[in-house]
Design a protein that fits this description.
396 residues, Beta-lactamase, seven-stranded mixed beta sheet, 10 helices, globular
């Protein structure tokens, strides 16, 4: 799983063929004019096709505030799926958790009593429904013994997911009392995180949209500042930092299409919600799905070294559907990329590369490419000719 959710955002590799501009009514420049936002930093991705629909200062760092708890939840979700803990596991409420995140702290809390024990599932509800800081600290201590150790685990998981510009100082999102360190992330990294949760922990994702819960005879409503404000929005949450302003991470499932939207560095809650609406509604207002290639369709070919044939076809592994702007002039390019030359023998149906859809601001979509046929290893003369070709002309 390492880096899986970052693959579509990075650039790589060696051999490629430019397939040209697409004969589509699509324009990156007009898309930018149509879909815009007041947010200084924003990101929008459609999950089914993996298309990046909008990107504005995607690597701009900011302190996520309470959105840090989404990362806290992701670590606990993984621990549950790995069998490290269970939903019924009881976690001890330390004096530190009670004082720093409980009733004495004056912050959002689920009012867990000092020296009591609380089940993991109830702590997750407190964390994600009521934004409870005591829940975050109790879970951290339960899994790793301390906030500091748990924060290292958060950052490690972020790196594994491909969140290359993120660091987490603690599970709550507040400034670390001991080191004065602050968590930092980006809109692109938060989109990766949301996609990981949706793809791997859909059963627990529903906790983000739970309207309320009652625990220990205490009724608590969902404190998310974005839930119920945008049609079909069913998760995640908002954050706020004194210096970096207001941010939001949202997922919307509408008309069979799910998108993840992130906005950051807004001046106030009103502007945060307005910016989030601009980005979310733009996914349906300005974009439609267009089929570029059918599954199995041959797209290009890859060079083969030392084979009975000097090249092999590359085909689409699955239907290549991409969300593209509805109108305007053509401004997207297709590029097939593979690690090459391929070395014989080559087996048919082997994934060896990908096709990229490239817009004005970079890669917006990737899909796998596989070989069409077997290519057997050539005889000595064929291998010698291949070596001579590489010496004289290279493989590009």
């Amino acid at each position: 799983m390492t880096g899986k959710f970052a693959d579509r955002f990075k650039t790589f590799t060696r051999c490629f063929s430019v397939l040209g501009c697409m004969a589509l009514s699509a324009s990156a420049s007009l898309a930018a004019e149509g879909l815009d936002t007041r947010a200084p930093s924003a990101f929008l991705i459609e999950t089914q096709t993996g298309t990046v629909l909008f990107s504005k200062e995607p690597s701009l760092g900011f302190a996520p505030g309470s959105l840090t708890k989404v990362m806290t939840a992701a670590v606990v979700f993984k621990a549950l799926s790995d069998g490290e803990t269970t939903q019924d596991t009881k976690c001890y409420v330390s004096e530190h958790a009670w004082r720093s995140g409980g009733a004495p702290s004056g912050r959002a809390t689920m009012f867990a009593s000092i020296k009591s024990e609380v089940e993991v599932i109830n702590l997750l509800q407190g964390l994600l429904v009521h934004n409870a800081n005591d829940a975050a600290i109790i879970l951290a201590e339960c899994l790793e013994g301390s906030e500091a150790a748990f924060a290292k685990r958060m950052t490690a998981l972020a790196m594994d997911l491909g969140m290359r510009d993120s660091f987490f100082a603690n599970p709550t999102g507040y400034v670390d009392d001991d080191t004065n360190a602050k968590s930092v992330t980006t809109v692109r990294d938060l989109a990766i995180l949301a996609q990981y949760i949706l793809s791997n922990h859909k059963d627990l994702y529903k906790l983000f949209g739970q309207s309320d819960f009652t625990w220990n005879k205490i009724f608590q409503r969902n404190k998310s500042p974005i839930l119920g404000e945008i049609r079909d929005l069913d998760g995640l949450g908002g954050g706020q930092d004194e210096e970096d302003g207001y941010s939001a991470l949202a997922s919307v499932d509408r008309s069979g299409r799910r998108i993840i939207a992130v906005v950051a560095k807004l001046e106030n809650d009103k502007n945060r919600l307005a910016a989030l609406r601009e980005v979310v509604e733009g996914a349906w207002e300005f974009f439609d799905v267009q089929k570029l290639y059918k599954s199995g369709e041959v797209i290009t070919e890859a060079r083969v070294f030392g084979g009975v044939e000097g090249a092999v076809g590359l085909k689409a592994v699955s239907d290549i559907n991409v969300l593209l702007p509805r109108s305007g002039n053509l401004d997207y390019r297709l590029r097939a990329v593979y690690e090459g030359p391929l070395v014989a023998p080559v087996a048919a149906n082997t994934v060896v590369g990908e096709i990229r859809v490239i817009g004005r601001d970079g890669i917006v979509h990737t899909s796998e490419l596989a070989t069409t046929d077997d290519v057997a290893r050539g005889d000595m003369q064929q291998r010698a000719l291949g070596a001579l070709w590489e010496l004289l002309f290279g493989w590009f």
